[in-house]
Design a protein that fits this description.
Elements: E1 3-4, E2 6-10, E3 16-17, E4 32-36, E5 39-47, E6 54-60, E7 65-70, E8 79-84, E9 88-92
Parallel strand pairs: 7-9
Antiparallel strand pairs: 1-8, 2-3, 2-4, 5-6, 5-8, 6-7, 8-9
Bound molecules: zinc ion.
């Protein structure tokens, strides 16, 4: 079953971070709410050395940037949904 990524939103200043830090990188607060981060935009992509696997930067609509495995061939700028199973994955948005 596919699950979705969540990012930490600082309860004091609202700064969003991933992965969840011990303390907010902006204000030091240690209490967070968790915000779904299902959608994003692909940045640069690259192929993993000696592998057919491709990875990409994904600028999450929720704020942080993550590195995700491409689950299908996609070009930078593509709007994607971000999954979280064994790895963080990116695939084209299902309409
Ligand atoms: Zn904060």
């Amino acid at each position: 079953m596919t699950s979705w990524l969540e990012v930490a939103a600082c309860r004091n200043c609202g700064h969003r971070q991933f992965p969840v830090p011990l303390a907010c990188g902006r204000c030091g607060n240690a209490q967070f709410d968790y915000v779904p981060a299902k959608l994003g935009t692909l940045g640069e992509t690259t192929r993993v050395r000696n592998s057919e696997q491709r990875i990409a930067l994904v600028m999450l609509d929720a704020g942080p940037v993550v590195i995700a495995q491409l689950l299908q061939p996609l070009e930078p700028g593509t709007q994607v949904e971000v999954t979280r199973d064994d790895v963080i994955g990116a695939r084209e948005i299902r309409r």
